[in-house]
Amino acid sequence: MTTTRGPGATAEVIAIRPGPPLTGTVTVDGSKNAALPLVAAAAALGCPVRLNNIPANTDVQTMLALLQELGWHVAQPVGKPTAAVILPTENQPVRPHLPQAARIRASYYLVPALLARHGEARLPWPGGCRIGARGMNLHFKVYEAFGDRSVLDDSGYRVEAARRRYGTVSLVLPFRSRGATVAALLRAVTAGRPLRLGEPNLSPEVLYVLEALQAAGWETRAGERLLALSPPPSAPSDAAWVVPGDKVEAGTLACAVATTGGSARIRGARADDLGPLVAALHRLGIFAVSEADTLTVNAQDGRLASRPLRATASLSPGGLDADFEPPLMALALGLPGTHLFADAINPGRHSNLLPQLTRLGAVIEEISPTECRLTGPQRLTGTGVEATDIRTGSALMVTGLTAQGVTTLGGLDQLRRGHADLPGKLHTLGADICEVTP
Fold it and tell me: Are strands 384-386 and 407-410 parallel, antiparallel or unpaired?
């Protein structure tokens, strides 16, 4: 049996069959959602930055390639495949045409670094998963607060840097946008100005950026209502950061273990990042505990009292990350109770996921475009399904582990955008997964 091995794999379809409970130990990769803003922060800092634990998924590799084309040097230390040193070059290249920036959503994180280097940023509209409208209007409001000017057209946008200004920049976000919060932090870095940001997003991915800037000398204070950032007395000469382990990959693997009635240890993700996921597993009657960097899941003899799950994606501090919702839905299909799921953050996600689950025989009631309910346990049957976005693909893999017969999953290019080798990690735990080659 062979499994897919990341972005270089030739197979475009994998086959999943039910098998014994998943058991063993596996380590997650670095987090895509953390690595992307940290790469952009390294570019914004203006000094050599060494990043460790960089994941090999295609979105992050695309981001690093964009930096190269934009005039940064990205060097990989010998024998360190998950490390890179990012530093600006002295030459000022002609502003390149960057159609590949449209492949990923996180290309917008590069705007502050481009403003510092070129005085303007010209980028196509960002791409990424097609999971509903996630506009950039709030980003442009952030840049406006710094005095920058934005020009938009059908093909993309241009942000022109303001002349050098001084003093504290203060603004309040109308909702807790992660992208706008990171944009404000990185623009404060490139402008060298203090920032007071009201109603910030305080997701782990934002806190990672704050930790990195603090290590580089910036003074940071983060509260639920106000985030403050102040420049260091002198510019840093270098920095070294570590990309935290992927909490979403850890949560997906935990749901896979639980849906098969298995027991496993999942290493690499921070315990604090997994609190909402662990609470959801407990509600579903699955024993799980996260300590230090290890998540232990035991669905064999560690069952708790099961209750219906209400999984509502939230931007509030300590809320359930929207990316946990799809694998939890896949798990809930096999557990008793009537479970409710809601994701208003990504309004198009259910329209991707639900039709694919329905192909497997799932009965899911759509309450609205962003809310649905299902009653389990349900008996599913394997068939051909498609990873129409990253999280739909990972949820379908979880579902295929218990669906009768064979589930074939296509669209692996989407899955690899967020996970270098999720099938391989499941295979390590004993999943019956194999490539379907042409």
Answer: parallel
